[in-house]
């Protein structure tokens, strides 16, 4: 019976569907580590965090429902939230455009088939391999007002440098400067993007009498615009999460001038154990990031060029 | 995806040389001048990039008093190698180093194994709801870790995992990060499916196809994931900061912070020596595995 059913054409679809169901099961088995992780470490905590943001929770006693109180407090009664948002915005407005421009320029220059491009690529990437605490320690020493490398360098030109991390005006520029030391990742992404632009587009532009600028403006920029969008969104998300350098180098000071949003959130959660309020802050941050990336995506319709219509 | 970039590049170079050959001297001269100028600018930038690192090395070898000399001495008057043993025994540095090796190693292993399993499902298998799940996977890339920070901390606290390495390792065994799953899926998609089909006809199980065909063919992509996740875990600061309390259990970044709070503004030479030893493993790994970085950028960035 079973032997004939295997060969009988009428039964073939059933056998096929059996195989398909086995494949479906296999899909879920293979994906199960991530699916479990998604539930336990992402979706579950997201729901919990949303719930906690409506409670007063100091860990020692169970959470107490307070409705919108945390959010009302955030917007009306907590000047530090605004300070944290202001600091993060100032930093982002400096670091994101500068990182984009500098890493793009470096990639463009390297793409000119400069001599020793491999060595240079390595050197520019090198600082990005170091992250977190070592970078913070090194730059604390570099920006030391009296004995640091930066002010010693400025003295060569007869300039007495500012107090950097100890100055309310210069602390954010200090962090921006530091971020420009770590442009390796966007640079490599841009370089890979430049290398994938088909040569014939440049040749066509040249035949049309286009010079360097025309080639850049009408070939390089449009072809690179999806990559620029990708890097820009990564940078926005990153800059909102800045924590380690602020925590180690200034701890938000002087006078809260470097109170990054991520640091203020940490202080609420793990210094003052205001878990409910910290959850509310996290959701506010999430909504701001969603809003910003949404805006960037919407504007991208105007400035991002997709070869042959929308890709993907 | 990766092959796309490589293809255009290889077809591009003959075109370029052709162009060069067909142009007259003055144009070639202008091009030479442009390349030379670009190289000089790049060289200047490279010096700026290297200066902090060189200065770190130089500080780490200086005598305590020479650290504060003005103008800066790039090459120390007296080179004190003894700073290193002194710096590394000042706190439980060797212990922290070992802790970091263990935690990072286990986390990287979990990331590579679990993310490759999941990527295999997304690249090679059909399943109901697969497209929706893939969109969810991609959208978790946008989710800032802060949103889940507090509840995940409370979860580990309720499990009694505070002051253990479990919170630093266990999440890596459940998919690691969406980024790695995405990267591996992109790579698996470039592998020909004929081998799978042949193996299927021979009656090989899907798990067999995963372990015997897909994994061995994907060594470069797996290496990329292992390297990226090594850097993430080696450099991780916030998780060990909130989960570890006992100082013998610290990982290197937390140990360095302890250093900072006890030594800052006096013993910059020791501090820089300890920092340098901390970044040595990532630097060495970077130098021996450079091509994987470029590949990672091509796989994820360009078609992102």
Explain what this protein looks like in three dimensions.
The complex is a heterodimer of chains A (312) and B (304). Chain A is mainly α and 312 residues long. Chain A has 2 domains: 2-52, no CATH class; 78-303, Orthogonal Bundle (MetI-like fold). Chain A has helices at residues 2-7, 12-52, 69-76, 79-111, 117-129, 133-142, 149-155, 171-180, 184-195, 199-207, 212-240, 244-250, 261-271, 275-303, and strands at residues 55-56, 64-65. Residues 1-8 of chain A have low confidence and may be disordered. Chain B has 304 residues and is mainly alpha-helical. Chain B folds into 2 domains: 2-81, no CATH class; 86-302, MetI-like (MetI-like fold, Orthogonal Bundle). Chain B contains 15 helices and no strands. In chain B, helix 4 crosses helix 8 (178-190), helix 9 packs antiparallel against helix 10 (206-217) and helix 13 packs antiparallel against helix 14 (268-288). The longest helix of chain B is centred in the first third of the chain and has 36 residues, at 25-60. Chain B is globular and about 75 Å long. Chain B starts with a helix and ends with a helix. The relative contact order of chain B is 0.13. Mean pLDDT of chain B is 84; it is low at 1-18. Classes of the chains: A mainly alpha (312), B mainly alpha (304). Chains A and B meet through helix 2, helix 4, helix 5, helix 6 and helix 7 of A and helix 1, helix 2, helix 4, helix 5 and helix 6 of B.
Write the layout of secondary structure elements.
The complex is a heterodimer of chains A (312) and B (304).
Chain A: H1 2-7, H2 12-52, E1 55-56, E2 64-65, H3 69-76, H4 79-111, H5 117-129, H6 133-142, H7 149-155, H8 171-180, H9 184-195, H10 199-207, H11 212-240, H12 244-250, H13 261-271, H14 275-303
Antiparallel strand pairs in A: 1-2
Helix pairs in contact in A: 2-14, 4-8, 4-9, 4-11, 4-13, 5-9, 6-12, 9-11, 10-11, 11-14, 13-14
Chain B: H1 2-22, H2 25-60, H3 83-90, H4 93-124, H5 130-140, H6 146-158, H7 166-169, H8 178-190, H9 194-201, H10 206-217, H11 219-235, H12 238-243, H13 252-263, H14 268-288, H15 290-302
């Amino acid at each position: 019976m079973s032997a004939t059913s295997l060969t009988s054409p009428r039964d073939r679809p059933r056998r096929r569907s059996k195989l398909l169901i086995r494949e479906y099961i296999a899909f879920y088995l293979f994906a199960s580590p991530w699916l479990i992780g998604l539930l336990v470490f992402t979706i579950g905590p997201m729901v919990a965090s949303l719930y906690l943001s409506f409670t007063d929770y100091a860990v020692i006693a169970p959470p107490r429902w307070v409705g919108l109180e945390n959010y009302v407090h955030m917007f009306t009664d907590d000047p530090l939230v605004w300070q944290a948002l202001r600091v993060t915005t100032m930093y982002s407005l400096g670091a994101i455009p500068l990182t984009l421009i500098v890493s793009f320029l470096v990639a463009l220059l390297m793409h000119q088939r400069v001599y020793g491009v491999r060595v240079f690529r390595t050197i520019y990437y090198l600082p990005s391999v170091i992250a977190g605490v070592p970078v913070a320690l090194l730059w604390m020493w570099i920006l030391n007002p009296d004995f640091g490398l930066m002010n010693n360098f400025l003295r060569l030109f007869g300039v007495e440098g500012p107090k950097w991390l100890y100055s309310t005006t210069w602390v954010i520029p200090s962090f921006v400067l530091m971020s420009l030391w770590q442009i390796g990742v966007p640079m490599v992404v841009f370089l890979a993007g430049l290398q994938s632009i088909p040569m014939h587009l440049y040749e066509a532009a040249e035949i049309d009498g286009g010079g360097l600028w025309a080639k850049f403006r009408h070939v390089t920029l449009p072809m690179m615009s999806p990559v620029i969008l990708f890097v820009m969104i990564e940078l926005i998300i990153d800059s909102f999460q800045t924590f380690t350098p602020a925590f180690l180098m200034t701890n938000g000071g002087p006078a809260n001038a470097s109170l990054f949003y991520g640091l203020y959130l940490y202080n609420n959660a793990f210094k003052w154990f205001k878990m409910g309020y910290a959850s509310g802050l996290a959701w506010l941050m999430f909504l701001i990031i969603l809003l910003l990336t949404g805006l960037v995506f919407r504007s991208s319709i105007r400035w991002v060029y997709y070869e042959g219509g929308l890709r993907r | 995806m990766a092959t796309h970039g490589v293809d255009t590049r290889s077809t591009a170079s003959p075109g370029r040389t052709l162009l060069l050959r067909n142009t007259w001297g003055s144009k070639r001269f202008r091009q030479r001048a442009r390349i030379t100028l670009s190289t000089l600018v790049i060289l200047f930038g490279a010096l700026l990039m290297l200066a902090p690192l060189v200065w770190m090395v130089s500080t780490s070898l200086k005598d305590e008093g020479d650290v504060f000399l003005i103008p800066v001495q790039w090459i120390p008057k007296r080179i004190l190698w003894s700073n290193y043993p002194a710096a590394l025994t000042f706190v439980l540095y060797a212990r922290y180093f070992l802790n970091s090796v263990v935690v990072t190693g286990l986390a990287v292993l979990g990331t590579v194994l679990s993310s490759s399993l999941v990527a295999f499902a997304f690249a090679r298998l059909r399943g109901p709801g697969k497209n929706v799940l893939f969109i969810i996977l991609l959208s978790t890339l946008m989710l800032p870790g802060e949103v889940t920070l507090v509840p995940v901390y409370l979860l580990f606290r309720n499990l009694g995992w505070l002051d253990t390495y479990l919170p630093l390792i266990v999440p890596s065994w459940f998919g690691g990060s969406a980024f790695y799953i995405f990267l591996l899926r992109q790579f698996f998609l470039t592998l020909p499916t004929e081998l799978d089909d042949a193996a299927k006809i021979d009656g090989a199980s899907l798990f067999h196809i995963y372990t015997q065909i897909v994994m061995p063919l994907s060594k470069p992509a797996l290496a990329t994931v292992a390297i990226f996740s090594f850097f993430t875990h080696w450099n991780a600061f916030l998780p060990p900061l909130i989960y570890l309390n006992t100082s013998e259990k610290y990982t290197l970044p937390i140990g360095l912070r302890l250093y900072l709070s006890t030594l800052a503004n006096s013993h910059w030479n020791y501090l820089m020596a300890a920092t340098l030893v901390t970044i040595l493993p990532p630097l060495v790994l970077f130098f021996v595995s450079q091509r994987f970085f470029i590949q990672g950028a091509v796989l994820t960035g360009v078609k992102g």
